[in-house]
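4.2 Preliminary Data

To establish feasibility before requesting continued support, the project team ran the inverse folding procedure on a target of 377 residues. The structure was first converted into the token representation described in Section 3, and no sequence information of any kind was made available to the design step. The complete token record follows.
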């Protein structure tokens, strides 16, 4: 049986007057305002947060976030979600919906597992409109449908999927620690403040820099290769323009300057950049250069992007990025950068496989193809 979302949960958003009249982002605020960029792959990402005062949050109880509430992006990046698991820490920001499960009707964790599923996100995409800033109306979100079962069955389904999520979460925590190690290494030996002596060089002396030719709608569901756009998550496509190690940089939009490493076959959106090593450069140079771009160049890009409503960068912003090159320092620390980068990517690949397994398990569990009746909670 399927029910409308508003039959199993209360769905709301931050009212316009709440934001314009009351919400003011401040340094040191006690409450984190959850924006769309704080939602990724079913979890909260809190490395870039805006805060409000606790008293402001208390004045707006309708848009406070409580334990087991589900937050869902509905404008710009459609369908990213997370479930709140702490009390008194978070508040809604614009462009994010709050879904409050009714525990007498549906298991809150099961509802979150379905909302984060490919099937539910596809429902959202089907009703989204707008090209540069896609959105889905709140009334339409309330009408999206949810498969419902008896609550005991829903609890067993969420219990199985939670085990997969915990492994994914563990890998993410490991990667965050590895990134902190890379950052510390960069700050100590390679940043402008480190005092390392050497030759001032530019990125284009080591890398070829190019963009893709395709629009974002060239993606293919279930395609063979990664298709990198300016959004946080890669899409799929059946073509590729490069095969190997590359630094991928978002060239415009809300995620301008976002940098990632990828090894393998991929294609690119026309405003996404790839940096790949020249043939005469040692292949392991890509690893320290990746961290230079991620930790230093991206900061400069974010501080100096062109455009107001939609920021962007141009080829020269990447090509003429300067850094200090010291051959001995490179040789000493390049293996460490390589190990950190490859470990992070291995965990990312494992998480992709786990997420695919979770997405495949959900319909099998819901259909009864996988029997959960013997699970003892």
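Position-by-position output of the design step:
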């Amino acid at each position: 049986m399927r029910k409308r979302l508003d039959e199993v949960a209360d769905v709301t958003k931050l009212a316009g007057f709440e934001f314009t009249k009351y919400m003011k982002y401040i340094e040191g605020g006690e409450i984190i305002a959850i924006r769309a960029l704080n939602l990724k792959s079913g979890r909260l990402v809190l490395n870039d947060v805006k805060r409000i005062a606790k008293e402001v949050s208390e004045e707006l109880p309708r848009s406070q976030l409580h334990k087991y509430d589900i937050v869902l992006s509905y404008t710009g990046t459609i369908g990213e979600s997370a479930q709140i698991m702490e009390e008194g820490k978070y508040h809604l920001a614009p462009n994010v919906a709050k879904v409050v499960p009714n525990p007498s009707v549906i298991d809150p964790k099961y509802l979150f597992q379905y909302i984060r599923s490919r099937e539910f996100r596809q429902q959202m995409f089907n009703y989204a409109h707008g090209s540069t800033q896609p959105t889905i109306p709140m009334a339409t979100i309330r009408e999206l449908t949810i498969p419902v079962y008896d609550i005991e069955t829903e609890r067993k389904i969420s219990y199985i999927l939670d085990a997969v999520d915990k492994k994914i979460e563990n890998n993410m925590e490991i990667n965050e620690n590895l990134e902190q190690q890379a950052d510390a290494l960069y700050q100590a030996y390679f940043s402008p403040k480190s005092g390392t002596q050497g030759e001032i060089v530019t990125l284009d002396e080591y890398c070829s820099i190019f963009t893709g030719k395709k629009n974002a709608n060239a993606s293919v569901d279930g395609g063979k290769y990664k298709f990198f756009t300016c959004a946080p998550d890669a899409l799929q496509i059946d073509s590729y323009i490069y095969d190997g190690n590359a630094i991928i940089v978002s060239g415009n939009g809300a995620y301008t300057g976002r940098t990632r490493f990828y090894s393998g076959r991929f294609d690119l959106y026309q405003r996404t950049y790839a940096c790949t090593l020249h043939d005469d450069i040692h292949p392991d140079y890509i690893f320290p250069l990746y961290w230079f771009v991620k930790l230093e160049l991206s900061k400069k890009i974010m501080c100096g992007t062109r455009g107001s409503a939609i920021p962007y960068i141009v080829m020269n912003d990447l090509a003429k990025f300067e850094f200090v090159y010291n051959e001995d320092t490179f040789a000493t620390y390049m293996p460490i950068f390589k190990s950190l980068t490859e470990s992070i990517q291995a965990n990312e690949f494992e998480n992709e496989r786990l997420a695919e397994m979770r997405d495949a398990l959900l319909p099998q569990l819901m259909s009864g193809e996988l029997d959960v009746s013997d699970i003892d909670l």
